[in-house]
């Protein structure tokens, strides 16, 4: 995993977990160059049991977003390196993650551009109440129906029937209790999808999931791997299409 701490001062990773660990709490990316605003949002999110990652620079935030699991973006329009609208355009190339715009411009045209033209989900006009922002964040997360993963690690044992199970001791993923025949790289990709179901993962993100990917691997590598994974899943369960292709966005595992 490449370092995301381009500007350590501005990155308040308020959770003490390492970046590579799976996020069990909603992970909120706050892109805002005003340190006081960023700190107050992060502090309030922490109190409400969210994780928060703050970035001053839009492109640093985009890099983090492309390499980590994020549940929602709070995006300031006036950033030092790129406008929030341009950043939103870039985000929408790979992701349909909820985005809430922070704007000091109380201007209907700007807001309509952001919400409708570029695919923002909501906006908050400065100055704003952090409590209001958090209630908007909660509303967006309810829309996207973020739920606890319906997956268990079979090595820990569970009585509940699960579609997918992970046996980390044997480095296996099971579908309906049958081991799925996968290469190491395919196993990594499917493991990531199974641990983060019902959300879209871009091809670029999945390439980064394969830490030891060979040089020269590209989008077509992921396409090939996904095709093999589908065939392997189909051998066990031909009634369901678990992996969904989202044209231009990426793939999701639907459970
Ligand atoms: Ca700003």
How would you characterize the overall build of this protein?
- With 255 residues, the protein is an alpha/beta fold.
- Helix content is 38%, strand content 17%.
- It has helices spanning 35-47, 58-67, 84-94, 108-117, 130-144, 184-195, 203-209, 219-236, and strands at 27-31, 51-55, 72-76, 99-103, 122-125, 152-153, 164-167, 172-175, 178-179, 243-246, 250-253.
- The strands form 3 sheets. The chain has a 5-stranded parallel beta sheet with strand order 2-1-3-4-5, sandwiched between helices. It has a 4-stranded mixed beta sheet with strand order 6-7-8-9, with helices on one face. It has a two-stranded antiparallel sheet with strand order 10-11.
- The longest helix is centred in the last third of the chain and has 18 residues, at 219-236.
- The protein starts with 26 loop residues before the first strand and ends with a strand.
- The model is unreliable at 1-21, 146-153 and 155-160 (pLDDT under 50).
- It binds calcium ion.
Instruction: Spell out which ligands are present.
Output: calcium ion
H and E order: EHEHEHEHEHEEEEHHHEE
Chain-averaged pLDDT: 80
The helix fraction, in percent, is 25-40%
- Main β-sheet, in a few words? 5 strands, parallel
Instruction: State the shape.
Output: elongated
Poorly predicted sequence stretches spanning 5 or more consecutive residues: 1-21, 146-153, 155-160
Terminal CA distance: 27 Å
Please list the strands of the largest sheet in the order they lie side by side.
Answer: 2-1-3-4-5
Decide which structural class fits the backbone: alpha/beta
């Amino acid at each position: 995993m490449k370092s995301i701490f381009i500007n350590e001062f501005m990155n308040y990773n308020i959770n003490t977990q390492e970046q590579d660990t799976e996020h069990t709490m909603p992970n909120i990316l706050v892109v805002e160059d005003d340190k006081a605003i960023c700190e107050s949002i992060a502090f309030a999110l922490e109190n409400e049991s969210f994780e928060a990652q703050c970035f001053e620079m839009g492109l640093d935030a985009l890099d983090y977003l492309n390499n980590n699991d994020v549940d929602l973006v709070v995006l300031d329009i006036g950033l030092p390196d790129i406008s929030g609208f341009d950043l939103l355009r870039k985000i929408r190339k790979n992701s349909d993650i909820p985005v809430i715009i922070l704007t000091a411009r109380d201007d209907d045209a700007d807001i309509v551009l952001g919400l409708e033209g570029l695919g923002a989900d909501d906006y908050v006009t400065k100055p704003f109440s952090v409590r209001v922002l958090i209630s908007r964040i909660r509303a967006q997360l309810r829309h996207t129906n973020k739920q606890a993963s319906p997956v268990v690690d079979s090595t820990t044992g569970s009585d509940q029937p699960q579609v997918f199970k992970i046996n980390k001791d044997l480095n296996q993923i099971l579908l309906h209790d049958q081991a799925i025949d996968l290469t190491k790289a395919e196993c990594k990709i499917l493991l990531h999808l199974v641990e983060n179901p019902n959300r879209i993962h871009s091809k670029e993100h999945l390439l980064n999931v394969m830490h030891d990917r060979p040089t020269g691997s590209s989008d077509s590598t992921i396409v090939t791997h996904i095709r093999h994974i589908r065939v392997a899943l189909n051998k066990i369960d031909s009634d369901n299409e678990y992996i969904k292709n989202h044209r231009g966005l990426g793939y999701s595992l639907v459970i």
